[in-house]
From TrEMBL:
Name of the protein described by the UniProt record: Glucose 1-dehydrogenase
GO molecular function list: hydrolase activity, acting on carbon-nitrogen (but not peptide) bonds
Domain NodB homology: 30-303
Any one biological process term the GO annotation gives: carbohydrate metabolic process
Source species of the chain: Coleophoma cylindrospora
Lineage: Eukaryota, Fungi, Dikarya, Ascomycota, Pezizomycotina
Matching InterPro entries: Glyco_hydro/deAcase_b/a-brl, NODB_dom, PgdA-like
CDD domains, per database record: CE4_HpPgdA_like
Length: 303
């Protein structure tokens, strides 16, 4: 069978917002803030030049704070024809928010993006891929068509199941018999999932942060390049159709050595027959129209 592979970049413009939403209320470190400014300025410019050189359109998930703080930079992204999707207002970790706070952040960020682009955003990715049990329900409520945060699969789209019925709280004050029950069955929502993967993300290997134990910052770009190519090779061998969404950040991938890595990855992937470089909304469009296959996520039992 002829291969068809939809490949795309999701670019999270966390900029300053990712450094000031500290969860603890502690003041932001000015040096961290300066790294965010580098991303919003130098990083965006370098990546826009790269996509222009490749001749591809990409998806930019932008916290509303970044749009309101760097309107001229984001206007370049918008005017170059790239997709702009949701990523919170101040990069809030939604798992720490109340349902009402999640709703208020969604409403405000949808409003900012709609005014800025002239159309309602279609997609959302959770800041730090930190989701909540209300996430899918709220995306449905706000009419958001797709999400890019969950990991039920790694290369096939599906209708995201709502997480609200799969939670079994455990704590030491309860009887063990209270929690020894299987998960309840998954029910698909109307939200299409473009699955996320930490192994196709630039942040953990390349962004040094002394406050985030999961980050490193000094991994050889050729090690990560091989890691990403190996994933592509396996999927290309095993599936006739699959998606390959890569997640990056201007303050990380805008660094010289990582720009060069993306150039090598682009050239490598492009050597394969059937590859199309698309935005995530284009992936979702193909899936919803039935032009591109996916999977059904199963699990749990009816109790
Ligand atoms: Zn982010």
């Amino acid at each position: 069978m002829v291969k068809r592979v939809l490949v795309g970049y999701g670019i999270d413009v966390d900029a300053v917002s990712g450094w000031i939403n500290t969860k603890t209320g502690a003041p932001a470190n000015p040096t961290d803030v300066s790294r965010g400014i580098f991303g919003a300025t130098v990083g965006i410019d370098r990546l826009l030049k790269l996509w222009d050189k490749f001749g591809i359109k990409t998806t930019w998930f932008v916290p509303a704070h970044s749009i309101e703080s760097f309107p001229e930079q984001l206007a370049k992204v918008r005017d170059a024809g790239h997709e702009i999707g949701l990523h919170g207002y101040t990069h809030e970790f939604v798992g720490t928010l109340t349902e009402q706070q999640q709703r208020d952040v969604l409403a405000k960020s949808i409003e900012v993006l709609t005014v800025f682009t002239g159309k309602k955003p279609r997609g959302w990715t959770a800041p730090a891929w930190d989701t909540s049990k209300e996430t899918i329900k709220l995306l449905e409520e706000f009419g958001i068509e797709y999400d890019h945060s969950f990991m039920h699969h790694d290369s096939q789209m599906y209708y995201a199941p709502s997480g609200s019925e799969t939670w079994v709280e455990t704590n030491l004050t309860r009887e063990a018999s209270d929690w020894m029950v299987p998960m309840t069955s998954l029910k698909p929502s109307s939200v299409v999932e473009v699955p996320a993967s930490w192994h196709l993300d630039d942040w953990p290997p390349f962004q040094l942060s002394l406050k985030q134990a999961s980050t490193h910052g000094f991994v050889d770009t050729r090690v990560v390049e091989q890691l990403w190519k190996d994933q592509f090779d396996f999927l290309y061998r095993e599936y006739d159709t699959f998606i390959f969404p890569m997640s990056i950040h201007p303050q990380v991938s805008g660094k010289p050595q990582i720009v060069l890595m993306h150039e090598r990855i682009f050239e490598y992937i492009n050597k394969h027959a059937g590859v199309e470089w698309v935005t995530m909304e284009q992936m979702v469009e193909e899936f919803k129209k039935g032009n591109f296959g996916g999977v059904e996520v199963k699990g749990g039992v009816d109790v």
